[in-house]
Design brief:
The complex is a heterodimer of chains A (158) and B (276). By secondary structure, chain A is mainly alpha-helical. Chain A is 77% helix and 0% strand. Chain B has 4 helices and 12 strands; from the N terminus they run H-H-H-H-E-E-E-E-E-E-E-E-E-E-E-E. In chain B, the strands form 2 sheets. In chain B, strands 1-2-5-4-3-12 form a 6-stranded antiparallel beta barrel. Chain B has a 6-stranded antiparallel β-barrel with strand order 6-7-8-11-10-9. Chain B starts with a helix and ends with a strand. The chains are: A mainly alpha (158), B alpha+beta (276). The A-B interface holds A 12, 15-16, 19-20, 23-24, 47-48, 50-52, 54-55, 58, 62-64, 67-71, 73-74, 77-78, 80-81, 84, 116, 120 and B 11-13, 15-16, 18-20, 22-27, 30-32, 35, 38-39, 42-43, 46, 49-50, 53-54, 57-58.
Chain lengths: 158, 276
């Protein structure tokens, strides 16, 4: 119950953060907070949680953003499921591991997004914006990742 | 292995499969349009988080933008002022041209019906210390034909001409007019339709003095004084009206006070009569 509640509150915080960041930063500096959260749950919780979070985050993003409905649900679900395999297989407490995972997961996300948007004829403009995502997630996203670690430690879940 | 055991063992894969199926159904059926209402509903309930964030984030942006806009506003203000100035000057020019055009039409009309030949001029300066002594005029056209002592008249109405004075000095297209009210001015005059002659002298005010009228001459209050045609001033140009008659300081003569029939304070356009 505590875990569920903390995740719900964190999702609300992410919604606020997402809105704020989209308001403050230009597209080429925006990290994908949803993706960072999925990576966090995949590394620090378990495979099932990361898949569920991926699915839920996808639905929320689809509702919030004006895009084809299902695009983000599919991409983030696949990302959550695939990254979930890394759980307990790598040392998630090492900062360099966190950075590398953030970078390569973002690359994988872009790859997935590009393929799915090509199949379902989504706008190509969005894909261009995503080219900056691995670097943003690696640099800015790293700090948000640390925020998640701090947040879940507060709830004594990690 | 039962289904429950399978689900327990492969829970992530089951959830993933479900999410895949769900997403693919959504993508394949293209329900984006249908979900717009739900999305709006969703966004509406999130508005309580949007609004304060927007306000907090937008406030410094708005303030910064205002500061950024100041130099642009200043520049625009300068440009607008310049434009306004130009427009104002243009407007003045148009107004002047319009007046000039109307004046030309008016003069053409006068010239057709008059026996004199005129040159138009405009009063450009009057010294307040010598208000009734002289005025400075500008002659825009044919100024080379204007000579000293030429009579200057005004015509407040098309068929009414009143003597204003004479050209005193001339320099290119600027001339000084010795007004009829100047104490130095002396104009030979007569009473209209009567054989009574005299000289009108300026007194430095709106009233003139008609002197050297013989004692036996018939002069009455209300008589109209016109030029007598001596010197180079044409005959029968009105000067004023007799308002008072008294004995002159020169023995054997009477003098009369003449009231001007035009407003000498508001001289604007004057006509110079060319020699016939």
């Amino acid at each position: 119950m505590k875990k569920f509640l903390s995740i719900i509150i964190n999702i609300l915080i992410i919604i606020i953060l997402d809105i704020s960041i989209s308001r403050i930063l230009p597209y080429f500096l925006r990290p994908n907070i949803w993706l960072i959260h999925i990576i966090y749950t995949a590394l620090f919780f378990n495979h099932t949680t990361s898949t569920v979070i991926g699915f839920l985050s996808g639905i929320i993003v689809d509702f919030l953003h004006l895009n084809i409905f299902g695009m983000n649900t599919l991409t983030l679900s696949i990302t959550g499921y695939v990254i979930g395999w890394l759980n307990k297989r790598i040392n998630e407490n090492l900062l360099k591991v966190q950075i590398i995972v953030l970078f390569f997961t973002s690359v994988f996300y872009i790859f997935l997004y590009t393929i799915i948007s090509t199949i379902f004829h989504a706008s190509s403009e969005k894909i261009f914006h995503l080219l900056f995502l691995p670097f943003n997630n690696m640099i800015l996203g790293f700090f948000i990742f640390q925020f998640f670690i701090w947040y879940y430690k507060k709830w004594n879940l990690v | 292995m039962t289904l429950k055991d399978f689900i327990q063992k492969n829970r992530p894969t089951v959830i993933f499969s479900f999410s895949m199926i769900f997403s693919l159904i959504c993508l394949s059926t293209n329900i984006t349009e249908q979900l717009k209402t739900i999305r709006s509903f969703f966004v509406y309930f999130l508005y309580f988080t949007y609004k304060p964030i927007y306000e907090v984030i937008d406030y410094p942006i708005r303030i910064t933008n205002k500061f950024i806009v100041i130099p642009y506003l200043y520049e625009e203000n300068l440009k607008l002022k310049d434009l306004l100035k130009k427009k104002y000057l243009k407007n003045l020019q148009i107004e002047e041209l319009n007046q000039k055009y109307l004046r030309e039409i008016y003069l053409d009309e006068i010239l057709k019906n008059s026996k004199y030949k005129f040159i138009d001029s405009k009063v450009i300066f009057r010294d307040y210390q010598n208000w009734y002594d002289y005025c400075t005029i500008n002659i825009p056209q044919n100024y080379e034909t204007v000579k000293e002592d030429m009579p200057v008249i005004t015509n407040p109405e098309p068929d009414k001409f009143y003597l204003v004075g004479r050209i005193w000095t001339i320099e290119k297209n600027i001339a000084k007019v010795l007004l009829i009210t100047n104490p130095l001015s002396a104009v030979p005059v007569k009473i209209k339709n009567k054989n009574v002659e005299g000289v009108v002298l300026g007194s430095g005010s709106v009233d003139l003095i008609m002197d050297y009228v013989l004692e036996e001459d018939d002069i009455r209050i209300g008589d109209i004084i016109v030029t007598s045609g001596l010197n180079n001033i044409p005959e029968n140009i009105e000067v004023g009206e007799v308002t008072k008659i008294e004995r002159s300081t020169t023995p054997g003569f009477k003098k009369a006070t003449i009231k001007l029939k035009f407003n000498i304070n508001s001289l604007k356009n004057l006509l110079i009569i060319l020699s016939q």
